[in-house]
Structures are given as structure tokens and as C-alpha cells.
Write a structure and sequence with these properties.
- 48% of the residues lie in helices and 19% in strands.
- By secondary structure, it is α+β, with helices and mostly antiparallel strands.
- The chain has an 8-stranded mixed sheet, with helices on both faces. Strands 4, 5, 7, 8, 9, 10 and 13 form a 7-stranded antiparallel sheet that branches. It has a 4-stranded antiparallel sheet with strand order 14-15-3-16.
């Protein structure tokens, strides 16, 4: 878009007419580009493997409750698990390496099978016409493709031509060798091992395959390592919350083989739920084992107390205690039961202290609620400690030991451990105080019991020991029964909402329709851009149609390319097409001049070489040919012109404008008669040092005043206005200013500026376009011109 920056006036707009003309002119180039881009999009869609999005959803209950989750609540009360989980942490677990390991271990992904066609390849899953059996005692090349071509029902050709091949040992789980090049080609029998220094496997043909259908087709297979599979799926796996207010995790995977990825996602969610159930099972088993150990210790004491009680009753023939002894006994039993529970608590406190001294990991720690210690703070601290320990283990398993978040977890674990130790110490001290208080009361009661008869006193003591052990044993049995019930009734907190399936109605890539739209856009955009830039970067105008957007002044006429090698073409070739162009220019003057009086017409141009003098001379001749008295002035005083085309003076000397303006010659002496009786000429004359001073002198005004008396048209040929300012002085005398614009010559920027200057000066002006190609001349009218 051309703009004169001083006035910010736009000379060119992309209107609808221009757009239509632009596409009509360049339709072949644009059409070819569209064809190429659409063909490219078709080939791209054809060779690009389709990618599908597979998704599954799982709800992660951060807090269990209600009748539907009674077993989980019971487990929480026993302290076997912590039902308060971080949803963000569980999202991380769902894409962790250990969980992906568990999923892939149960899937047959070690061999990848492919079918090839001309443009692309397609992975086969559960539909390969052959299977590969590896001998894992031998090293195998991994990550490279073996190509298979079927020959008949018993043989096939296998080949490989790869660089940088890694040889992997399944025994040591390590790359044992790297080969720069591996070439191998052999015809082999099915169900027979293929041996070499770096491989050992055999190929089996599926019994349901018709060999005639797969002949001529090309297949391949690739051996994968467990680690490469885990790395591949981990890189592509996306786990996202379905929305901000729910605890539903959406697991997505972009894949070229949706059936294979559906199996993987289903295994992944199953593994996640199984790991959760295994954690609960492991926690309950640890609690039951601890209770069993305590039962073994208490059981021995209970059996000895029972034997002593039975022996005493048999030897002393005492079967029951007296009423007074019974009162002492009941009170003593109540105190001893309380003390037994405090003893159990003391053992738990000692267990926790020893555990902290011997272990840095806390995954085996039993929660206090499992042993009947229902302090909310202590339970909360230990449950949080167990949860953070599991989170730390997950980071370490995923090889993220340098994670800044792991450092924060370690700090929190250490702070929690100190808080637990402080609370355990406090509770242990409080427990010891309570035990001492009970011991004092028991001691006091013992002193009162000494007043009883000896047999009764001994019997009460024996029964007291029996009942103490019986109470502890019964208490532990109750806890064990509760733990067994919880173990048998637990359920996973997480639940699969949507099994794995393909999202949408088809592949997400390639987007075929979108690719065609983009190709169409690019097929239009780039050629239009290039052609348009080429137009904008052109210094001059090459197409006549572009003038409609460049020229703001009226176009008086268009002069065709002059094929005649003469200057005065109107006079020498009056029937030519170019001569007719000048007659049209003459006819156009009537739209500017309504009255019959003398007119001054000034011809100028932006630069030299635009045909200004040629157009001015022939325009004057065309006017003179119509019978109007015309004079042509060569007012380009910077250009010496003393050659006459008409009659010379008798003394043989020709004067020009410079001589007249200097006062060295009269007007009659500088006028040169031409062969046309209606047209005279005044040449520029000799060179002068200051042409502008002459042009702006009073002699110029006097010249035009005198010429108007004798001539109807005064044609003034000036110097290029874009180079010097002489012409501006002459334009003030002009009734009409004509600017020459020559195709492939006139600079756009200079012409635009020239138009702007003329409009700013309120001068009457128009444009004549010169050197228009004859190629577009009307074929029906061309025979009129010779």
C-alpha cells in the first residue's frame, strides 16, 4: 500500500475490483500452488500413522465414610491405614515408574509387530500372522526392526540392515555390546531357532493364517526391553483431574495402537487398586502379627496361673472364696484389669521407641489405635508419618532423589518423628504415673486382705494372677478378632468409573480435514504473498491495471509503444495506432477547456527518459493537424537543443529560449517554423548557468502573453519535475499540467510524491501513460492502423 507519510494519504487500497483482477491474472500460478499443497496434504494424511486418544477415569476417595465404606472406616479406627490421602499425590502415583512396571509386567509387549505398505506402517497387536519366541538365555539386538517376507507355508526370509545396534542381555538386564553395523539376511524355517553371535529366536506362523493372503506383503518385528517400554509409556501418559471440585483422575494416552493402549490402561488402574489393597492387607497382617506375639507371651503366663489355681483348690479342698474375700477379689480384679491395659500401653510405647532407634523407614510402624490407644493427636501424627514415608519411597523409586520437594518431605518426616517421640515420652510418663497410683491402691488392698484366713488369702492371690492374665489375653483376643474382621472386609478406596476406551469418534491425528483446509490456505496465501511482495517491491509499474490503484489524477490518455523509429510519428505515420493515441489525447482536452481561447499546456515527468519530449511534440502535432494554431516550446533549459526541424533563418543561425529570455533575440527570431503550417517551435537554446532564474523571470510571463495572441495551444516541454524545480515555475502559467508516466520506467514513490505536491498546490493536472504494450489492442480494430 503506497502512502505519502507527510500527509498520510493512501493511494492504493485492495478493493474488490483489484482482487478480482489479481486472481484473474495469476489464476494459473495460484491454482498450481493449490494443487501442489492439496496433493501434499493428501500424501501427508496417507503416510502419517493415525493417532488415537485413549482414556480411563478413576475416583480417588480422599476421605472415606458412610455405610457403603464401613470396612475402610473400621480399618481407619484400628490404625491399619490412613484414609485421608492427598489427591495431588495420588495423581503422581498413577504415573509413577513402579506402577507402570506393575502394569507392563502382566502384558505381552516385549515384541512389537508391524505391517508395511507403500506409504506407512501399522503396528499389529493380537493380529500378527506370526509370533517370535525369544531364547532369553542369549543376548538379543533391541530396538531394531527385523523384516519378514513369507515365501511359503514352511519358510520365510528374514533380514536386517541397521546401524548402531545395541545387544541386550535379558539375564544381566544390561546392554552388553554396541555394533556399528548389523547386516543379516537368511531364509529360515518356521519353528526353528535362528542362531548368530548376537541373537537366538524362532518364528512361528499362526495356524489360522492363509499363507496366500500374506505373500508379497512386508512385515517386521522389534524386540523391546522392559525399561524402554516403561520409559515410552511414562513419557506419553497424562494424568489430570477431571475438574477442580472432584477427586476423579482422568488417565489419557495418545497412541497409534488403541487396542494395545486400552489393555495397558486397564492393567494400570488394576495395578493401582491392587497396590492399595495390598497396603491395607500388609498393614492388617503386621498388626495381627504383633498381637499374636503378645498373645504368646500372655498365654504362657495364663496357663501357669490356671495350673496353680487348680492345684491349690485340689490340695486345700477350697472351691470358692468367702463373701468378704469376694468383695476384696472384685475390687482387686477391677484394679488389675486397669493396670493390665496400662501395661499393654507401656509395651506399645517401648515398641515405638525401639522402632525409631532401629529404623529409618516407618512403613512397618503400627498405629496406636490398633492397640486401643485412642489419642487423636498421637494417631494423627503417626498416620501422617506413615503417609509421608510412603510418599518419600515413591520419589526414590522414581529416581527423583534430587527433587526439592523430597527435601521438604524429609524435613517434615524428621519434625514429625521428633514430635512423635516427645508425645510417646509424655504418654509413657503419664502411663507410669497411673500405674504407680494403681500399685498403691493394690498394695493397700493387699494389706487389708492379710486379715483374711491364710487359705482364703492365698486363693485370692492365685485367682487374682489368673484373672489379670485372663483379662489381658481376652483384651488381645478382642483386638485380634477386630483386626481379622477388618482384614476380611476391606475394600479399595479408589474405584474405576470409566474403563479404558477411545475418546471421540476417530483419530485425533492427523486431522485430515484441517490439513486440507490448511493446505488450501497455504496454497492461496504463499503465492499471493510472493506475487504481492514482488509487486510492492517493484520500483516501477509493469502492468497497466496497477495504475488504477496508483494514479489519483485523471488519466487523459494512454500512448502505445512506439515501434516506429522516428520522433515525430504523428507527422510521418499519421495512420499508425500511436498517432491515433495522440489524437485521443487532443480530444480529451475538451473536458478541461470549455471555452475557445488560448491554452498553455505544460508537460512534465518525475524523471528523465519517460518520453516527455516525445509525447509533448506529437501532442502538439496532433493538435496542429486539426487546424488549430499550435506552438511547441522546449523549456528544458538544462538540455541544449539548437537543432531545428523547420526552416532556418536566412543567416543560418537558430536562436532559442535562453537567447530570448536573456534579451539577446526577439520573439520572432526564436520561433522556428515546422513543415506543418499550423505548428511552430521554439527550441531551448544554448546552455545557461542558472536556468531557474531565467524561468522565473518576467520575460517568461511576457513570452506567454505574446504567444497567446497568435496561438490557440502553447505546448510546453519542461525539465523533469522530480529532479529540478524549474517546472513548478512554469506550472503557474499552465491551464493544464500533464504528468508523464512510463510503464517499467517511472518510479512509483517519486510519482506518488509528485501527485501529492501537485494536489497540495491546487494545480489542474492529469496523467498520460506512455509506452503501453500493444499486446492487448483490440483485435477487431487493429486492422485500421498501418
Amino acid at each position: 500500500m503506497y502512502v505519502v507519510m507527510g500527509n498520510l494519504k493512501k493511494y492504493e487500497t485492495l478493493d474488490s475490483q483489484y482482487i478480482i483482477k489479481f486472481f484473474k491474472k495469476n489464476w494459473m500460478i495460484i491454482g498450481m500452488c493449490i494443487f501442489i499443497s492439496i496433493t501434499g496434504a493428501y500424501i501427508f494424511n496417507k503416510i502419517t500413522t493415525e493417532v488415537y486418544n485413549v482414556s480411563t477415569s478413576i475416583v480417588i476417595n480422599e476421605e472415606s465414610g458412610g455405610l457403603a465404606d464401613a470396612s475402610a472406616q473400621l480399618l481407619n479406627e484400628f490404625g491399619f491405614i490412613s484414609v485421608n490421602k492427598s489427591f495431588a499425590n495420588e495423581l503422581f502415583v498413577l504415573q509413577s515408574t513402579p506402577l507402570i512396571n506393575s502394569a507392563i509386567e502382566n502384558l505381552d509387549f516385549q515384541i512389537s509387530y508391524y505391517e508395511h505398505d507403500i506409504f506407512s506402517q501399522r503396528e499389529l497387536y493380537k493380529s500378527s500372522p506370526f509370533i517370535v519366541i525369544l531364547d532369553k538365555n542369549y543376548s538379543q539386538p533391541i530396538g531394531v526392526k527385523f523384516y519378514i517376507e513369507f515365501i511359503d507355508s514352511v519358510t520365510c526370509k528374514i533380514s536386517i540392515d541397521e546401524s548402531d545396534v545395541k545387544i541386550y542381555s535379558f539375564v544381566s538386564d544390561y546392554v552388553v555390546q554396541e555394533n556399528d553395523k548389523m547386516n543379516f539376511e537368511q531364509v529360515v524355517h518356521f519353528d526353528s531357532y535362528i542362531y548368530s553371535d548376537y541373537m537366538k529366536f524362532k518364528i512361528l506362523l499362526n495356524s489360522s493364517v492363509d499363507i496366500e493372503e500374506i505373500k508379497g506383503k512386508k512385515y517386521s518385528f522389534k524386540i523391546n526391553t522392559f525399561h524402554s517400554l516403561v520409559k515410552s509409556y511414562k513419557a506419553r501418559l497424562k494424568v489430570l483431574p477431571s475438574d477442580l471440585e472432584s477427586s476423579v483422575a482422568e488417565i489419557q494416552l495418545d497412541t497409534e495402537n488403541p487396542e494395545k493402549s486400552i489393555d495397558f490402561l486397564n492393567r494400570l488402574t488394576d495395578a493401582y487398586i491392587n497396590i492399595e489393597l495390598e497396603k491395607k492387607r500388609h498393614s492388617s497382617i503386621r498388626t495381627i502379627e504383633y498381637i499374636n506375639n503378645q498373645l504368646n507371651v500372655v498365654g504362657d503366663s495364663l496357663r501357669r496361673a490356671e495350673q496353680n489355681l487348680q492345684s491349690f483348690r485340689t490340695q486345700n479342698d477350697v472351691t470358692d472364696i468367702s463373701l468378704q474375700s469376694g468383695q476384696f477379689f472384685e475390687e482387686m480384679r477391677e484394679l488389675e484389669n486397669k493396670r493390665a491395659i496400662l501395661d499393654v500401653n507401656s509395651k506399645y510405647y517401648a515398641y515405638v521407641k525401639d522402632y525409631f532407634n532401629e529404623n529409618q523407614e516407618f512403613d512397618e510402624l503400627i498405629a496406636p489405635s490398633a492397640m486401643g490407644i485412642n489419642d487423636p493427636m498421637l494417631n494423627s501424627l503417626i498416620e501422617e508419618l506413615i503417609r509421608l514415608n510412603a510418599e518419600r519411597a515413591s520419589f526414590i523409586e522414581n529416581k527423583q532423589a534430587k527433587s526439592p520437594y523430597l527435601k521438604k518431605i524429609n524435613i517434615r518426616i524428621e519434625n514429625l518423628r521428633k514430635m512423635v517421640v516427645e508425645n510417646i515420652t509424655y504418654y509413657d510418663q503419664t502411663n507410669s504415673i497411673n500405674i504407680d497410683d494403681l500399685d498403691r491402691r493394690i498394695k493397700k488392698l493387699n494389706s487389708e486382705m492379710r486379715q483374711l484366713p491364710a487359705a482364703q488369702r492365698v486363693l485370692v492371690g492365685i485367682e487374682r494372677k489368673f484373672n489379670i492374665n485372663d483379662a489381658i489375653y481376652t483384651y488381645l483376643l478382642e483386638k485380634k478378632a477386630e483386626a481379622e474382621i477388618a482384614k476380611a472386609s476391606y475394600q479399595a478406596d479408589s474405584e474405576i468409573i470409566e474403563p479404558a476406551s477411545i475418546v471421540g469418534l476417530g483419530p485425533i491425528a492427523p486431522k485430515k480435514t484441517m490439513n486440507y483446509i490448511i493446505a488450501l490456505f497455504l496454497g492461496i496465501f504463499f503465492p499471493v504473498l510472493i506475487i504481492r511482495l514482488k509487486e510492492l517491491l517493484q520500483i516501477s509499474v509493469t502492468d497497466i491495471k496497477e495504475l488504477d490503484r496508483l494514479v489519483t489524477l485523471p488519466i487523459l490518455g494512454k500512448i502505445s509503444h512506439n515501434e516506429k523509429n522516428v520522433e515525430n510519428v504523428v507527422e510521418e505515420f499519421p495512420l499508425s495506432y500511436v498517432s491515433e493515441n495522440f489524437r485521443h489525447v487532443h480530444m480529451g482536452f475538451k473536458y478541461f477547456f470549455k471555452e475557445e481561447q488560448s491554452r498553455i499546456i505544460v508537460f512534465s515527468s518525475a524523471i528523465s527518459g519517460e518520453g516527455k519530449s516525445f509525447v509533448a511534440l506529437n501532442t502538439a502535432m496532433a493538435i496542429a493537424a486539426s487546424g488549430k494554431k499550435t506552438i511547441h516550446l522546449s523549456f528544458d533549459l538544462r538540455k541544449i537543443n539548437l537543432k531545428s526541424t523547420g526552416e532556418e533563418k536566412k543567416n543560418g543561425k537558430v536562436y532559442g529560449l535562453t537567447e530570448y529570455l536573456y534579451g539577446r533575440a526577439e520573439l520572432s527570431e526564436v520561433i522556428v517554423k515546422s513543415s506543418s503550417h499550423e505548428m511552430d517551435r521554439i527550441l531551448s537554446g544554448a546552455s545557461v548557468p542558472n536556468p531557474e532564474a531565467l524561468v522565473s523571470s518576467n520575460k517568461t510571463a511576457e513570452l506567454f502573453t505574446q504567444l497567446k495572441k497568435d496561438y490557440k495551444y502553447i505546448i510546453v516541454d519542461t525539465s523533469p519535475i522530480g529532479l529540478v524545480s524549474d517546472a513548478y515555475n512554469l506550472m503557474t502559467y499552465a491551464d493544464l499540467n500533464i504528468l508523464l508516466f512510463r510503464l517499467k520506467k517511472t518510479p512509483k514513490s517519486e510519482f506518488i510524491q509528485l501527485q501529492q505536491d501537485i494536489e497540495d498546490k491546487n494545480l489542474t493536472a492529469c496523467v498520460i501513460v506512455n509506452d503501453v504494450s500493444l499486446a492487448r489492442r483490440n483485435k477487431y480494430g487493429s486492422q485500421y492502423y498501418k
